[in-house]
Amino acid sequence: MDGTPTTEDPIAIFEAWMAEAAKTEPNDANAVCLATATPDGVPSARMVLLKGVDARGFVFYTNLESRKGAELAANPNAALCFHWKTLARSVRVEGAVERVTDAEADAYYASRARTSRLGAWASKQSRPLESRFALEKAVAEYGLKYAVGEIPRPPHWSGFRVLPRRIELWRDMPFRLHERRVFHREGTGWRIETLYP
Ligand SMILES: Cc1cc2nc3c(=O)[nH]c(=O)nc-3n(C[C@H](O)[C@H](O)[C@H](O)COP(=O)(O)O)c2cc1C
C-alpha cells in the first residue's frame, strides 16, 4: 500500500490552484493534456479543456468518434497533466474513465455558443478533411437545418469523467528540488506520499 492515510482533499486543493490559475494565466487555465492508449498500450496525447470537477472526477467533452473517443471506448483509462506556467505548478491525474450522463452532456452542450454547437455536428473529428470548404459547407448546412428552434446534441458528442485513483500535486521549488505530493485513492479517502523530484 502506498503512503499514509490523510484527511487532506487533493480535489479541493486542485480547485484552489485552478482558481488561482484562472486569475494569472493569459488564457485557458483549464487546458489540460489528455493521454489515452490503445488496448495494447500505444499512447497518444492531445489538449482538451476541463469543463467540470468535483469529488467524482474531472470532466471534458469531445467527439466520441474521434481518435481519443475510440481509444477510450476500447481502453477506458486516461491520464491528465495540467501545467500552469504562471504558478510554476502542475497536476497529474490518472484513473479509469466513464461517460457522463446524457443529462450532463445535454446541459453542457446547451450552454455552448451556437457556432460551437453547429461545429459539433459538422466536424468528423480526427478523420481526413478533403478541404476547408467542405467543413465550412457542413457548418452552413447544419445552420440551415437548425435555423429554427433548438440544436439537439449530436449522438456522437458527449463527455468523459476521469475517476482519479492517483493525483499528484507538483510545485516548483528552488534548485529544482521540487515538491511532489501524491494522493492515492483508498475507498472514499486518500493516502498520501511524497516523492523525490
Ligand atoms: C487548448 C486546447 C483545447 C482543446 N480542447 C478540446 C476539447 O475540450 N475537446 C476536444 O475534443 N478537443 C479539444 N482540442 C483539440 C484537441 O487537442 C484535438 O486536436 C482533437 O480533440 C482531436 O484529438 P484526437 O484525434 O486525438 O481525438 C483542444 C485543443 C487545444 C489546443
From TrEMBL:
<feature type="binding site">
    <location>
        <begin position="176"/>
        <end position="178"/>
    </location>
    <ligand>
        <name>substrate</name>
    </ligand>
</feature>
<dbReference type="GO" id="GO:0010181">
    <property type="term" value="F:FMN binding"/>
</dbReference>
<feature type="binding site">
    <location>
        <position position="112"/>
    </location>
    <ligand>
        <name>substrate</name>
    </ligand>
</feature>
<protein>
    <recommendedName>
        <fullName>Pyridoxine/pyridoxamine 5'-phosphate oxidase</fullName>
        <ecNumber>1.4.3.5</ecNumber>
    </recommendedName>
</protein>
<keyword id="KW-0664">Pyridoxine biosynthesis</keyword>
<feature type="binding site">
    <location>
        <position position="67"/>
    </location>
    <ligand>
        <name>FMN</name>
    </ligand>
</feature>
<keyword id="KW-0288">FMN</keyword>
<keyword id="KW-0285">Flavoprotein</keyword>
<dbReference type="InterPro" id="IPR012349">
    <property type="entry name" value="Split_barrel_FMN-bd"/>
</dbReference>
<dbReference type="Pfam" id="PF10590">
    <property type="entry name" value="PNP_phzG_C"/>
</dbReference>
<feature type="binding site">
    <location>
        <begin position="61"/>
        <end position="62"/>
    </location>
    <ligand>
        <name>FMN</name>
    </ligand>
</feature>
<comment type="similarity">
    <text>Belongs to the pyridoxamine 5'-phosphate oxidase family.</text>
</comment>
<comment type="function">
    <text>Catalyzes the oxidation of either pyridoxine 5'-phosphate (PNP) or pyridoxamine 5'-phosphate (PMP) into pyridoxal 5'-phosphate (PLP).</text>
</comment>
<dbReference type="GO" id="GO:0004733">
    <property type="term" value="F:pyridoxamine phosphate oxidase activity"/>
</dbReference>
<feature type="domain" description="Pyridoxamine 5'-phosphate oxidase N-terminal">
    <location>
        <begin position="19"/>
        <end position="142"/>
    </location>
</feature>
<dbReference type="InterPro" id="IPR019576">
    <property type="entry name" value="Pyridoxamine_oxidase_dimer_C"/>
</dbReference>
<dbReference type="Pfam" id="PF01243">
    <property type="entry name" value="PNPOx_N"/>
</dbReference>
<feature type="binding site">
    <location>
        <position position="170"/>
    </location>
    <ligand>
        <name>FMN</name>
    </ligand>
</feature>
<feature type="binding site">
    <location>
        <position position="180"/>
    </location>
    <ligand>
        <name>FMN</name>
    </ligand>
</feature>
<feature type="binding site">
    <location>
        <position position="116"/>
    </location>
    <ligand>
        <name>substrate</name>
    </ligand>
</feature>
<comment type="pathway">
    <text>Cofactor metabolism; pyridoxal 5'-phosphate salvage; pyridoxal 5'-phosphate from pyridoxamine 5'-phosphate: step 1/1.</text>
</comment>
<dbReference type="GO" id="GO:0008615">
    <property type="term" value="P:pyridoxine biosynthetic process"/>
</dbReference>
<feature type="binding site">
    <location>
        <position position="68"/>
    </location>
    <ligand>
        <name>FMN</name>
    </ligand>
</feature>
<keyword id="KW-0560">Oxidoreductase</keyword>
<dbReference type="InterPro" id="IPR000659">
    <property type="entry name" value="Pyridox_Oxase"/>
</dbReference>
<dbReference type="InterPro" id="IPR011576">
    <property type="entry name" value="Pyridox_Oxase_N"/>
</dbReference>
<feature type="binding site">
    <location>
        <position position="51"/>
    </location>
    <ligand>
        <name>substrate</name>
    </ligand>
</feature>
<feature type="binding site">
    <location>
        <begin position="125"/>
        <end position="126"/>
    </location>
    <ligand>
        <name>FMN</name>
    </ligand>
</feature>
<comment type="pathway">
    <text>Cofactor metabolism; pyridoxal 5'-phosphate salvage; pyridoxal 5'-phosphate from pyridoxine 5'-phosphate: step 1/1.</text>
</comment>
<feature type="binding site">
    <location>
        <begin position="46"/>
        <end position="51"/>
    </location>
    <ligand>
        <name>FMN</name>
    </ligand>
</feature>
<comment type="subunit">
    <text>Homodimer.</text>
</comment>
<feature type="binding site">
    <location>
        <position position="108"/>
    </location>
    <ligand>
        <name>substrate</name>
    </ligand>
</feature>
<feature type="domain" description="Pyridoxine 5'-phosphate oxidase dimerisation C-terminal">
    <location>
        <begin position="157"/>
        <end position="197"/>
    </location>
</feature>
